[in-house]
Amino acid sequence: MAEDMKIEVCMITAYFPPVVGGTEIQSLRLAKALIAQNVSPFVITRRLPRLKRFEEVEGVPVHRLFTLGSGTIASILFMISSFIFLFKNRNKYQIIHAHLASSPAITATITGKLLRKKVLIKFGCGGKTGNIQTSRKTFLGRAKLEILMKYADVFVCPSVEVEREVVGYGFTKEKVLEIPNGVDTVLFHPVDDFEKEKLRKRLGFPAFPVLIYSGRLVSRKRLAVLLPAWREVTKVRKSQLLILGDGSEKARLISLAKELKIGEFVKFTGQVDNVNEYLQAADGFVFPSSAEGLSNALLEAMSTGLPVVATRIGGTDEAIENKKNGILIEPDNLSRLADGLITLLNHPEIAQEIGPAARRTVEENYSIDIIAQKHLKMYQEMIK
User: Fold this and answer.
1) Are 227 and 214 in contact (CB under 8 A)?
2) Domain shared by 146 and 210, yes or no
3) Is residue 279 within 8 Å of residue 212, measured between CB atoms?
4) Is residue 1 a part of any domain in this protein?
5) What confidence tens digit (pLDDT) does each residue in 235-262 have?
């Protein structure tokens, strides 16, 4: 294959921006970066109400396919419409890249086998909420994994932990690659003190320190552990916790903050479009999750040069070296979490050291351009 030949890739994902989540953000980010690497990607995803059948999202062609209802019925209908689309447009792609080992990955794998297309499946997360452990609990889940294992060509994992889990289940080791998630280091960059102060005023930050959590408000993110820990922090240092994002736990967490009598020190912003500006204006970042592949939110905070307190899980443990470019604590340990946050707030010399080190880590290992180059090399190997 000529090295300068444009590679055509069909990405398949259940959801895509404007739906926002880790998988959705990462698939858009990667698709955009691949265009600059002489790759021609397009996306097929579910068509949701009020969204067009076809549009370009930040330069990426997106085909939204028929589905109806929710749950299993919606998944089956999307699998059928995806198969029809892939069959009709079989001359427009060489590789099918499925984001997450969920039901669309079955369509990708079966279509690839029938049409002799190369198929790549990405596993998103490890542990109790990951693709392997959730799938192995049911007959259909185990059947799905068997189909992927037997017929797909390459499996990408965002961390060594997820890679070990996938290989441990029985996937062929030579087919499994670790390629981490990537972050836009141009958008998420540090700002100087003057710009930071301007942002703080515009965003309504208080005069005292502000730490941020960003991401979904769901159980595995362990915000129900963070809030009691934050109560201990506020006893020592007047500070505010900004929680960016939405999710099923939001109402319960707001009630918990009131119950803990820390409502004045915790602010729930909901989903925001300018996460980068909030990070640039903040004094630190906290990530208490109990299970991840490799968090986009964590990488964004590190890329912005923020000192981070995070749990020792999955890709987080691989990205952060304790007390070098972040502070690591064990999951679900309320007192250690509080101690880590107090250390960050009370010792500016530590924050001033680990923040820039976090930025360097991202520039060297997690820039989306580097991650796109790794995917390009993998695509080239797949179609040789």
Assistant:
1) no
2) no
3) yes
4) no
5) 999 999 999 999 999 999 999 999 999 9
